[in-house]
């Protein structure tokens, strides 16, 4: 009986300790209040590198001064300086017009290239088109969510951490209410559960 | 052909400095302009615009009058398109600030307005290129069509960036004018000049390297704010405004040096205030009174500009850089005539 009570106490205390950092369950009466919690506020997209430092005593999240200024501006409800790329084509109609014109430009250039005799002009046009295509592809991949998903770059994080190697990937920074984090920062890595060898 | 003949008959200087002196002057101009623009961007910008903005427009006007044929002839459509487009685009551009203050357009709608004006500019330039290409049947300028379309596309993606690009590219056009002028009037200097121009990217890279990490300039008063805004501090907030103002000022100083010093000195045997040196005025069927009147009126405007700068520098600077779009546009047809 004593052993059973002791075991119950251990389980209870460990549960309290383990759940201390979790948000308490929302009571039905407060559910509406919980729904009224503001949506996470998106501030910026930046890069994040997770690396190991065997000599470090404490983990560190290093944020640049400009990022911190963006945070401060966001907290003051002041418009932070938008990134240069973000200021491009923020309007759908303008993007459509730009796309149509670029389509025409590439089409006309292709026709001219096909009709012209091989020479310096053709070489120059070919170079311009290749550069435009490369830049366009790069822009689509980096800005248009094309290419592999963000989690792809984090897929080898456990192995890299085990080897003490850095891993680099994209990260979105969000501002959430304080009660959700309780004074901490949370780094959520998009890692899928990897089965150990032999597991289904 | 006509333009070539005109340039061959361009008056030449009595005492022609040697090519080495010319190269030394160009290099000195490049380095000193970069140094002044980097060290004291705001102060030098104020002084430079005060003293040289108006006079450089006067010299530019005089240069264009010298390049104007007495009879338009086959170039009638070209000049008609040039002047009509110049007038309409300038009037619309000047009216934009008035429209902005009078209406409550959203930022997106305003970007569309700017993109439309920029597109009209590109279309006008395209029309001029097409008309000019008809006079040069051996030249193949069809590749400019996709280039123009691509520029239009980029303009619609970021109208503000396109407008800012015009601000930075415009000063370089003066260097192109000087190149074309040297090629026809001083061929011996042309190669040396082009070698000097190769220094320009290195100077620019050096300035960017040195100034990219400098703190932004204090724009805590209206005038400094205007100067940083004109250089694109609002469009490129991540870039140090010190860098932006310095680079723009550097290019502007070169622009003024070409129009006020280089072009008048290279090809003026006679005094530059002599109306008879302008072919349109000198020709028996020309318009000496009209040309004289235009130049005198422009001189009065330069004086008024100095007076305005003395009374209210910030407002006059705003007005000047709005109206000055006319000279930016006017360079296009005359440059095309030289190509």
Describe the structure.
The complex is a heterodimer of chains A (200) and B (339). Helices cover 46% and strands 10% of the residues of chain A. By secondary structure, chain A is mainly α. Chain A has a domain of 55 residues. A two-stranded antiparallel ribbon of chain A has the order 1-2. In chain A, α4 packs antiparallel against α5. Chain A starts with a helix and ends in a 19-residue tail after the last helix. The relative contact order of chain A is 0.14. About 12% of the residues of chain A have low confidence. Chain B has 339 residues and is mainly α. Chain B has one domain. Helices cover 78% and strands 0% of the residues of chain B. The relative contact order of chain B is 0.17. The interface between A and B is medium-sized, with 30 and 27 residues.
- H/E element sequence of chain B: HHHHHHHHHHHHHHH
Counting copies of identical and different chains, the oligomeric state is: heterodimer
Overall shape of chain B: it is globular
Number of helices of chain B: 15
Number of distinct beta strands of chain A:
2
Which percent band covers the strand fraction of chain B?
A: under 5%
Q: Nearest-angstrom radius of gyration of chain B? A: 20 Å
Low-confidence stretches of chain A: 13-35
Q: What is the strand tally of chain B?
A: 0
What gap, in angstroms, lies between the N and C termini of chain B? Answer: 11 Å
Q: Report the mean per-residue pLDDT of chain B as an integer.
A: 84
**What number of structural domains do the residues of chain B give?**
1
């Amino acid at each position: 009986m004593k052993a059973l009570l002791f075991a119950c106490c251990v389980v209870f205390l460990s549960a309290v300790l383990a759940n201390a950092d979790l948000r308490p369950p929302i009571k039905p009466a407060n559910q509406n209040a919980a729904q009224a919690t503001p949506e996470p506020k998106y501030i910026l997209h930046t890069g994040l590198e997770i690396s190991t430092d065997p000599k470090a005593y404490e983990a560190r999240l290093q944020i640049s001064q400009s990022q911190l200024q963006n945070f401060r501006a966001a907290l003051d409800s002041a418009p932070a300086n938008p990134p240069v790329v973000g200021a491009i084509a923020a309007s759908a109609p303008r993007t459509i017009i730009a796309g149509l014109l670029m389509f025409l430009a590439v089409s006309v250039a292709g026709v001219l290239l096909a009709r012209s005799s091989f020479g310096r002009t053709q070489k120059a046009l070919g170079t311009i088109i290749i550069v435009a295509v490369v830049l366009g592809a790069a822009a689509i991949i980096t800005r248009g969510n094309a290419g592999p998903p963000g989690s792809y770059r984090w897929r080898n994080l456990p192995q890299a951490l085990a080897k003490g190697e850095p891993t680099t990937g994209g990260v979105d920074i969000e501002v959430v209410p304080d009660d959700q984090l309780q004074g901490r920062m949370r780094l959520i890595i998009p890692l899928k559960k990897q089965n150990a060898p032999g597991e289904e | 052909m006509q333009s070539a003949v005109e340039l061959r008959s361009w008056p030449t200087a009595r005492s022609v400095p040697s090519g080495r002196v010319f190269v030394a002057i160009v290099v000195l101009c490049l380095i000193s302009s970069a140094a002044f623009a980097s060290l004291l961007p705001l102060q030098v910008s104020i002084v430079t615009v005060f003293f040289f903005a108006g006079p450089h427009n006067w010299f530019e006007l005089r240069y264009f009058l010298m390049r104007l044929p007495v009879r338009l002839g086959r170039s009638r459509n070209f000049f008609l398109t040039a002047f009509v487009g110049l007038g309409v685009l300038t009037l619309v551009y000047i009216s934009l600030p008035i429209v902005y203050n009078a209406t409550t357009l959203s930022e997106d709608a305003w970007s569309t307005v700017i993109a439309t004006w920029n597109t009209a500019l590109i279309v006008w330039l395209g029309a001029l290129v097409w008309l000019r290409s008809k006079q040069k049947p051996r030249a193949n300028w069809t590749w400019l069509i996709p280039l123009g379309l691509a520029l239009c596309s980029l303009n619609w993606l970021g109208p503000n960036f396109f407008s800012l690009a015009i601000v930075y590219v415009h000063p370089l056009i003066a260097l192109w004018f000087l190149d074309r002028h040297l090629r026809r009037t001083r061929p011996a200097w042309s190669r040396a000049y082009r070698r000097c121009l190769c220094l320009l990217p290195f100077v620019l890279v050096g300035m960017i390297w040195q100034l990219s990490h400098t703190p932004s300039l204090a724009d805590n008063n209206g005038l400094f704010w205007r100067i940083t805004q004109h250089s694109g501090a609002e469009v490129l907030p991540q870039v140090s405004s010190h860098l932006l103002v310095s680079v723009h000022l550097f290019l502007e100083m070169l622009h003024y040096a070409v129009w006020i010093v280089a072009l008048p000195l290279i090809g003026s045997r006679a005094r530059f205030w002599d109306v008879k040196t302008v072919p349109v005025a000198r020709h028996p069927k020309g318009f000496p009174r009209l040309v004289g009147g235009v130049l005198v009126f422009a001189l009065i405007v330069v004086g008024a500009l100095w007076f305005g700068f003395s009374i209210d520098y910030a407002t006059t600077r705003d007005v000047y850089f709005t109206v000055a779009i006319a000279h930016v546009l006017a360079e296009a047809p005359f440059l095309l005539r030289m190509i």
